[in-house]
Amino acid sequence: MGNRETIGEAAPLDAPERRQLDIIRRWGTVGALLMFVGSLGAGAAPVFSPLPGTPVLGLFARMPSAAMGVVWTGMFLVVSAWLMLGRFARPGRPRLMSRSQLDRTLMMWITPLVFVLPMFSRDVYSYLAQSQIAANGQDPYEMGPATALGVDHPLTTNVPNIWRETPAPYGPLFLAVGRVISMVTGNSVLPGVFLHRLLVLLGLAMIVWALPRLARRFGVPPVSALWLGAANPLVLFHLVIGVHNEGLAIGLMLVGLELALRRMPVTPGAPMTRDELVWIALGATMITFGAAVKIPAALALGFLGVMIARRWGGTFKDLVKAALLLAVISGVVMVATCLGTGLGFGWVQTLNVASTVKSWMSPPTAMGFLGGGLGLLLGLGNHTDSMIALMRLVFQAVSVVIAGTLLWKAFRGRIKAVNGLGAGLGAVLVLGPVLQPWYVLWAALPLATAVLAKRFRLIAMSASAFIAVILPPTGSAFDGRAYIVPQAVTAALLAFALCVFASRRQIMPLIKRDPVPDAA
């Protein structure tokens, strides 16, 4: 339900803790600045980049291995700063940092990253090419960049080879906004990247607005949710730097949930007021807009329907009524979006485009490779593709069962609906045909608003820190040059160790275990 659970107000940080917070801020800011500098040589720069011929700045482009070491050093500094910051945002602690203190910290870390070259992925170049196709009046759901724009087009050359012939897998709202960006920037790559990053920052602003409000509603200290959510290194690295449209989709989804719950009373069974219905419709509209960017956001409609049904009385009839209400609202909004943008419904047929990638990080794909390899070992022939297709089908069926079970448990009141949403999104994406590090955020951000358990927060913190540092910044493979990565990581670890040693008097008190007990 949308009730506000009681949150004990924590005291502000004392003077020594405020000094420690200043150290953490500077530590993370130095890391962000190193990532900015290193991106000039290690980032996923455009194919025709002006950097190599630029005085001073071009030096980094001519030293990619050293630049990569600088980036990884910055990554280690940012992640360690976030881990140290967590002690001042832990639920159950008698003294927590204030919302303004966390906001200032987040601004200090994000500001240098706004101007960083894209890293960890080259997806933003696909966004630019697909948006230009739409701007040209062509159908991005029918043609890939190579076919629609030409192989030698400046936007096509930056798209990874595997995506040059594939149509766009993104929703019509995202491509409609991208079309406007392309009309402004034309074939200019870097201005286009910057405007797409501003779009992601708009999504991040929505996340920062919604997270503390949802957290207070579900009994979690707002700064605890913001620390695990908005300040998460995965957000900084893969949304801000990587320019992934998940930022916009998740932001719209979370804002929609908060708006829909805004006027929902605690007492079930009371007649629904017109004001409450308006806010539910507004929230469902925002969630549908999120799904019109990336389809996983649509799952939030199911858990919103559960909360509405429980508000109406919690009977199966109420559940059916809530489902019909949201189906009508979201259906009207989605049809209006598809027709209003002029892009139609072709995106429904391209949702499986990403499955053409055979990523070892995806459990069903990994199982398919294992099964195919076992077949070769036993002399049964190479059936790897068939095994991958079979495993993907099985795992997707399992994810549907998991999501359905979570919906039912939330309807029966056994779990919080927002927890079910986070776990359901995690199951759908982790068990899907493709898994990328930033997909974790679909689960982590909703769960950050409602889970206080120490074990969950420890697992989420550890997983976020580990995943944040395992992906190379270049956003490309290292075929024939795999030795570069261990060299850069080794150099970065040595540089990070030197930083810790030089600042040991200031850093060591922040690493020691806080004696304050955690929330249960």
TrEMBL record:
Compartment(s) of residence: Membrane
GO molecular function, one term: glycosyltransferase activity
Matches recorded under InterPro entries: MptA/B-like
Keywords, sorted A to Z: Glycosyltransferase, Membrane, Transferase, Transmembrane, Transmembrane helix
Membrane topology type: Multi-pass membrane protein
NCBIfam families assigned: MptB (NF038066)
Protein name in the entry: Polyprenol phosphomannose-dependent alpha 1,6 mannosyltransferase MptB
